[in-house]
Amino acid sequence: MAERSRTVRFRRARIAVVVTASVFSVLAVLLVLAAWRDDHLINSDKGVTSAEVLSAGTLRSAVIFVTPDGETHNPKTGVLYPTKLTVGERINVEYRRSDPDLVRVAGRDARVAIIPALSVIVVAWAIALPLLWLLGSPPTLWWGALSTRLRAARARSSRSHTAG
Q1: Quick check: 81 and 109 in contact, CB under 8 A?
Q2: How do residues 14-40 score in pLDDT, each as one tens digit?
Q3: What pLDDT does residue 80 have?
Q4: Dihedral angle at the C-alpha atoms of 149, 150, 152, 157, nearest 10 degrees?
Q5: Cα separations (Å) of 50 from 27, 59, 66, 83?
Q6: For the chain, how far is it from start to end, CA to CA, in angstroms?
Q7: pLDDT digits (tens, 9 = 90+) for 62-108
Q8: pLDDT above 70 as % of the chain
Q9: I need a labelling partner for 27 at 20 to 30 A (CA). Which of 2, 107, 127, 155 fits?
Q10: C-alpha–C-alpha distance, residues 25 and 21, integer Å
């Protein structure tokens, strides 16, 4: 009975590890997709102007700029792709004319989010895979399960082709 309880605990722990690594991976992919969406929105209604950097950080930088209609904008969420900016610097920004709070540093786009997102995915799985191994799920079991599923999928596919 104790052995069964231990097996169930290890199985739940393995599931938790896989779910956690998968959640981090999905969130990283969603981050890149959101950046592409923002870029698409900006490109579909783009305005370009000069801005002053008010505060600079690795995750958020504040800018202030004036649109052609004379309105001054200081987006609450900051500027997209804010790396390597310095306070007081004048930069070109691209913004969505219908929503000037959506602004990015000119010349930068979602591609700058790919490497950090991939890094998150690699680190998540670099931690998860050894944990899975320690929890009693060595790679030989993964490959065996994967090959069994692939064979079953091929068999179903060939049966559906011969039946149709």
Answers
A1: yes
A2: 889 999 999 999 999 999 999 999 999
A3: 93
A4: 140
A5: 33, 21, 8, 17
A6: 49
A7: 999 999 999 999 999 999 998 889 999 999 999 999 999 999 999 99
A8: 91
A9: 107
A10: 6
Q: Give the span between the Cα atoms of 149 and 33, in whole angstroms.
A: 30
Cα torsion through 52, 54, 56, 60, rounded to 10: -100
State how far the alpha carbon of 58 is from the alpha carbons of 51, 81, 86, in Å: 18, 9, 11
Q: Are the C-beta atoms of 61 and 79 separated by less than 8 Å?
A: yes
Six token digits for residue 18 = 């896989």
pLDDT of residue 164: 55
Q: How far apart are CA 124 and CA 20, in angstroms?
A: 8
Report pTM: 0.74
- Kindly state the tokens that stand for 50: 């000069």
